[in-house]
Amino acid sequence: MSDPRRGAARSTGAAGHVPEVWGRIPPRNKNFTGRKELLARLRDGITGQVTAVVPHALHGLGGVGKTQMAVEYAYRFRSEYDLVWWIPADQPVLVRSSLAGLAPFLGLPPATASGIEEAANAVLDALRRGDPFDKWLLIFDNADQPEDLNEVLPRGPGHVLITSRNHRWEGVVDTVAVDVFSRDESIEFLNKRVPKGISKADADRLADELGDLPLALEQAGALQAETGMGVREYLKLLSERTSQLLAEGKPTEYPASMTAAWSLSVASLNEKLPEAVQLLRRCAFFGPEPIPRDAFSQPRLELGAELTALIGDPIRLSRVIGELGRYALARLDIPARTLQVHRLIQALLRDELPPDEQERMRHEVHLMLAGYAPADPYDPASRSRYSSLLGHILPAAVGESSAPEARRLSIDIVRYLYGIGDLGFARALAEKFLPIWTKQSGEEHKDVLELRMEHANIMRELGEYQLSSKLNQATLAVAERVLGEDDPLTLRFFRGECADLRALGEFERAREHDEQLLARYEARFGPEDPGTVLTINNLAVDCGLNSQYVRAKQLMERAYQSLLSTGEADKSTLLLIWSGLARSVRLCGDYSEACDLGEDAYAFGLEEFGIEFSWTLRTAKDLSIAWRRLGDLERAGELAEDVHTRTVRQYGLDHPDTLAAAMCLANYLRTRGEIDAAMDLAADTVRRYPRVYGHTHPYNYGCMGNLAIMHRVQNDPQAARKLNEQALAGLETKLGRDHHYSLTVATNLASDLAALGDYENAARLGQGTLRRLRAVMGDMHPMTLCCASNLTADLRALGEKDEAEKLFEQTKAAYAQVMGLEHADAVVFLEGRHLDADFDPPPI
Prior knowledge:
With 844 residues, the chain is mainly α. It has 4 domains: 8-178, P-loop containing nucleotide triphosphate hydrolases (Rossmann fold, 3-Layer(aba) Sandwich), CATH 3.40.50.300; 183-272, no CATH class; 378-504, Serine Threonine Protein Phosphatase 5, Tetratricopeptide repeat (Alpha Horseshoe), CATH 1.25.40; 617-830, Alpha Horseshoe (Serine Threonine Protein Phosphatase 5, Tetratricopeptide repeat). It is 64% helix and 5% strand. Strand 8 (331-333) and strand 9 form a beta hairpin. The chain starts with 20 loop residues before the first strand and ends in a 14-residue tail after the last helix.
């Protein structure tokens, strides 16, 4: 993709040139000192495209300034680049999200339009090609294992810089080892850091005592700059503090110089502003990523009087946070409203506290995180906050707490990840937390039951239908016994059971269960309750799967109106029902109205959730089908190809949504006459369906019927007949003969017989099928007209002219009324050719 900015970007290297894209780079350290040789080595080495900055082997615990080196490199050599982008990499699961944020700057669709996975992949592809920028720099900060980043390192014309504490990078890419300062660098740094000046001799003594460790020198310099403490006094206190720490037998795993310097800074700040130290200690129990400033903005009684008073006083709180920055105990990012504490300082702060104090402060952090989290994790407006919480959930051990607030936050984080389509991370968290919660609270605790339900929902969304059914059934029995049959959570398990029945192909049983469930919801909660509305939607889905399309439409209309009448419609539920209404209208045969509804629903999904959201993709797939049925093949094909590409990337080849999108695309390709491509895709999809649904699911047989059509179109009616006979037998066993799916395959089987010259049996099968279709679908349904059209041709071939002519006139009048005689189906009918009736699997 080209970009108008590309021409301007050719000024790279010019004096004063600023990169056109400068993203998320931490503020420059105005006191950065020395490192000239290392920076020169880094600049020379980075031409190899990927370079890692690692600590010297003797200082692997941190504090040597790896990140500061990367920041300084970015600022010092920014005139050499058109794009510089910073990516926190200590939690690999968040890397793709950071990459996806680059998309709009490269002229690519944002993640809200294309999805995180696709946006990140598009960014990587653009960087590899160097379009629109071929001089770029990506900085992955605090990476751990090399394999975590293998798939996200864009080896192209630009440069990649990695900072890591892990020496394994030395065997993978070029590395630059960062040691402590040289003595001259230490002295130069202290002269910069202490504005009132420090003699060379004093600086030398101080550097010697602190082992030339940059983070320790930063602490010492900040303390002296803020308090005016002399070097002699500082060294005396440093000696006393070190002796005290060593006498206590700690800390053995951290540099003593860092520990002592940090201890002095904290002690001095405690004398000046004790509240600052109290807040800093809480910061130690967040993750090492930036902490949202607003996490401290809501007072809670559970935090204790002192901390609650501080959080409730914005002036004092601002002063406290400012002091943490001035003492170099936290890095402040004013525009982003975040503060960040070095992971080594966090570890030192935690280790100085006894276990009971650690537990208390960790609990307070959980309360602050929970207070910061919005109430509805599915609300698109909540996404930015939940995204900023992700980097703290695991480091802060939120999922290991038994406190109600922490449990609620853990469940909501899982639901948030489910809502944005990050099912892998959602599953990992659920499976990490469940054993802990079960051990803490027992299998019958309500938190455990609720998280088990979310786990089952995730597995269902992943297409693991057998497992989701097993999980849901086991927990439903517990919920009924412990909570009662009419508890809201128990009823949600019942809803899950109905979804599992649909997934297993038990359409009628699912309908019966949802009928009973709806009666219970209405009796307990009333007709406008969100749970009632969702159950109405699900019953409508059941009705559609049982060929009761008019009732399905009526139920969807009821659910849609009920949701809007509340005035505060849940947006994800609204999209679900809106999409279902459009599908129901299409299945009733009104393609034009279905397109109008589908277009509106799709636009709503894009605007509110982005294309990555599962129901946006499903709405798009249904809209493509509606456009194809209406005859708008160009738009239908474009959308079908787009949805298929996205589902493959997002879910893989064997996910139910991918299979449905593949069949939608195959049907489109056949309609356009691209038979070979359609045949290949349909055959592959038919092979994959039993892996997801099992061998006897109706969708397997319906898609088998699609493949049969393609065999007939390729002049192999015998193969088509064999497949259709197998499909019809399976559908009759599972659903009975008087079902839309069975009658669709029967219609196509009649066409196979006609293609083989057996017009008598073709007509006999067509007559019986038409009679059944009129009873099930109505006289004017497009499927009924398709069967009547084909039967007309077969009757003419048999010489039954009167009967054929009568049926022809009836069918012609119906086509004129329902679809118009210019519609592609009507044209085929008027030309006396057979129509093909294909099948598109709906969501369950």
